[in-house]
Amino acid sequence: MAAFQGKPVLKHAHISTQDYRDCMARFGSAVHIVATDGRAGRRGVTVIAVASVSDNPPTVLVCLNRNRDENRWFEKNGVFTLNTLCADQIDLARAFAGEDHLDMEARFGLGRWQTLVTGAPALAGARMTLDCIVTDVQPIATHYVIFGEVVGHRLPDHGDTPPAALTYIDRDYKAL
């Protein structure tokens, strides 16, 4: 952080919420389902706000909307999986985004789920799955940033040509 000492700090946003959303719509991202299970309950959510934080220890972050009380279940359960979707799993992406208005049991019923190390639901057929223990949760503006240390993974052998990835760009799902 020393590089920022003495630099002016922007105190007020000069971009509207809508302009920011329009900019972010042009930012293509892989589509994932983040899932948890435990004392608080079973929950899954379609997300695109995901990043690798470190490879030692392997750590990822996931951003979840604070407007849904159920998103606190990820912290309460202390575990989650990050399941990266294939292009042919668009129905799962839509369901876990709430587009079909299905209850959580029906959403999970659309896929085949297993467990790896932590007991969190791991989607069979995902491009890859990371199994994580929650290490920190930070409330930032409208979202929770959930950090997870990766303690297990599944990287299916798709042969020489893995299936197309499901991405989200320009407010629509696309195969890549």
Description:
The chain is of the alpha+beta class. It has a single domain (31-154, 163-169), classed as Electron Transport, Fmn-binding Protein, Chain A (Pnp Oxidase, Chain A). Helices cover 15% and strands 40% of the residues. It has helices at residues 17-25, 73-77, 90-96, 104-109, and strands at residues 29-30, 32-36, 43-47, 50-55, 58-65, 79-84, 113-115, 121-123, 128-140, 143-154, 166-169, 172-175. The strands form three sheets. Strands 3-2-6-9-10-5-4 form a seven-stranded antiparallel sheet. It has a three-stranded antiparallel sheet with strand order 1-11-12, with no helix packed on it. Strands 7-8 form a two-stranded antiparallel ribbon. Strand 11 (166-169) and strand 12 form a beta hairpin.
Describe the structure in brief.
By secondary structure, the protein is an alpha+beta fold. It is built from four helices and twelve strands.
Q: What is the typical, i.e. mean, pLDDT?
A: 93
Radius of gyration: 17 Å
CATH architecture title: Roll
Number of helices: 4
Classify the helix fraction into a percent range: 10-25%
Query: What amount of the residues lies in strands?
Result: 35-45%
Termini Cα gap: 36 Å
Residue runs with pLDDT of under 50 for 5 or more positions: none
